Structure formats: structure tokens, C-alpha cells
Amino acid sequence: MKKVVKFGGSSLANAEQFKKVGNIIKADESRVYVVPSAPGKRFKDDIKVTDMLLHLYATASEGKDISEEVKAIKARYDEIITGLELKDFSLDKDFEVIEKIMKENPQRDYAASRGEFLNGKIMAAYLGIDFIDAAEVIFFNEEGNLNSYKTEKQMAARLEKSPRAVVPGFYGTGKDGNVKTFSRGGSDVTGSIVAQASRADVYENWTDVSGFLVTDPRIVPNPKPIKYITYRELRELSYMGASVLHEDAIFPVRHCGIPINIRNTNAPEDAGTWIVESTAQKTENVITGIAGKKDFCTIFITKAMMNSEIGFGRKVLQAFEENDISFEHMPSGIDTMTIVVHADEFMHKEQSVVSAIHRLAEPDSVEIESGLALVAVVGRGMKSASGTAGKLFSALAAEGINIKMIDQGSSELNIIIGVKNDDFETAISAIYKTFIK
Questions:
Q1: pLDDT given at position 26
Q2: CA separation for the pair 84, 70 (Å, rounded)
Q3: What is the DSSP secondary-structure string of 330-347?
Q4: How much is the pLDDT for 215?
Q5: Interval 270-283: pLDDT, tens
Q6: Are 200 and 157 in contact (CB under 8 A)?
Q7: What is the percent of the chain with per-residue pLDDT over 70, rounded to a whole number?
Q8: Distance, CA of 132 to CA of 136 (rounded, Å)
């Protein structure tokens, strides 16, 4: 058994958190590769180290003195080093290099990446294992995207030399030879890459929550956790706004069939959530999760005999393409078609789009309505459960909620409904109470 473990910023905010992480790693000898984030907030009004580093960069790029900024950042790390009693370890030389580079040639990505770099060095010293600089094993192409082939090859070769190691998250090397950071999901992506390259059996992603929840706790108090979720379910929920791992952080392990286990550093005994390719585990409930977004617009297009006119749908969508607007959903009837788009993309171009629709498709009428919210009900259990849609509509009817749109994919994995923005929270609560026991 071989595991890659990634720890978020809140899990490594101070020495006490570092000790928790150390105990978690030492408790399971199969946890051989560690991917740390930069130190997060120690308390509510604290500042993340990455934000301090970005402020350092802003100060340096203006040609101002950065000694105070460097001193403050170093103090955060010295506090951790002292708390861990690493008496023969120091980051003094690393800070000298950082200060020199920031004075001579300040680069935003370089500055932003130092949080993980320095935390990785501390973690390696604390655990007594190898440190591998991510800049030596993760590479980006000219477009700024991950060079998957080169990265996997170099990473695998380097890991073969180190049976146990720390690889800091969030950054690599760009085509120009400079340090480059991931645009999103940084350390999560690094952990996934290490898991793929090492052919790990499990990728454990440790954070400050015990896995994913069925829905947003800001809407439904204390929602139940999700035990198992498939990649496809995760994709649907993530797309609809749920705070879950980004697709970029999923793909490397999904490609290899490596499961991800989301765990809580502060409650290591909790099983967390398993993200898997497929599972025979029975779901406690018909649905796995509920997510949604507000502020969509609908463009309702009518034309007699639309269904018999070849190319009508293409012409309508061309109007949106000409205006650089992507659409979310497209439910249709015999003589009607509805296009759902993000309001912030559409509102300032609405008349241009309407004009293009008339010019290209010659419809009988075009009507626009705003203030629409979309709610996605996702679950692999829906395939084998009868009456799911009926229960869903009954739950909303009981709350006096008018359904403005219904869209269900052929996979039967999800049902998306449109309601007024004002009914968004009530709709999610009603669905949760109906389906989650």
C-alpha cells in the first residue's frame, strides 16, 4: 500500500497543527509522499502567508524597501520551527535568496510559491525525509498549462530515488525557466500529480472538514456528509457551484483510477469522503448532493414548425457564439427553444444577441427573463429509484415554489430545475428535507 497525503494551509498554520500532521503521517507507514500547502490563518483575522508574500511582491515591484515584509514572513516560519524544536534547522539562507531575488527581479509567481517551498523544507526536516523542489519535477508549456508528459516522466524518475519525500504544492517551472504557479487548485493538483507518478493506491487530501457535505451548510444547518461520490457526480456538483475539488485536481488520479479520500486533520478518526471512479456501495439516500447558482437569464424563442426546420438550433446558437457567450442549458419543445445563460455575460450584450437571433433564425418571437436560479439534484441512486422527479416537484410545490425550467440529462445522474432567485434557498432546503433521512 502506498499513499500520497496532501495537507491544506489550515492544517499547517502553526507548530501545533504541524504536530497533528506529523502524527497522522507517522500513524500509517504507507503515507510515503507528503504535499504541503503554505501556512494558512492561525485565527480568524490572521493573514495567510501567501497573502503576505503577494504583498511583499507588490512592495518590491514598486521599488520600495521590503525588509519589514521579509522580517514578518520569516517570523511566521521561525515560530513554527521553534514550536517544533528543530534546533539544527534554519531558513536563514533561503530568506537571503528570496530577498535578493525580490530586490533584483521581483516575480509574482516566484513570490507566491515560496510559502509552499519553505513549508515543504520544514516538513521534510520535521519528518526526517527527502525534500524535492517542485520546480525540478513539475513543468508548464508555452501556453501556461501543465506539461503532463514531461512532468509525469520527471516526477516518476525522481520519486524512484526517494521512497519517502516531501513535494511542496502549488508551483512548478514555466517554459521560460521561471517559477510558475497553478492558476487554481494548486496544491490539490500537485498531490494528484504525485499520486499519479508514484502509482499510489490512495490520494489522501487533508483539510479542515470531514469530507464533502450533501449541500451548502450556509443554507441547510448541519447537512449530512457524503461517504462515497463518483467522479461524475463530483463533476456535476462542482460545475453547479459546490465547493469541491476542481477538475484539474481530479484528472491525473482519475486517469489512473486512484481513489481520493478527503479527511479532516483536526478529526483524523473520521472516515471522510471517498471520491471514486465507480462503486457498488449502496447510497443511504437516492441523491448524493444538491448544489446550485443564482443569476441566470433565459431567452425563450418561439417559431411555428421549428422542429421541421433543419439547422434552426445551430442558427440560434450562432447568435450567442458571435457575441462570445456560452450557454448553460437548452431545453426545447416542438415550437419553442429556451437558452439559459449567465446574466453577467449576457446582460450587456442582450440586444445584440436578440438582433442576431432574428437575423439568423427568423423566429416568431424572442422573450428574455432574468433572475433565474439553477438547482442541480445529483445522485447515482436516481437511476434505480422510481418517482424521484415526482417527489422533487411535490417538495417544491408544497413550498409554493414555481418551477421555471426542467432539464434532465440522458444519464439520469442529475435533474436541474430553474426557480426564481428569491426561491433558491427555500428550494434547496425543501429538496434536502424530502430526500435526506
A1: 95
A2: 21
A3: --B-SSEEEEEEEHHHHG
A4: 92
A5: 999 999 988 777 67
A6: no
A7: 97
A8: 8
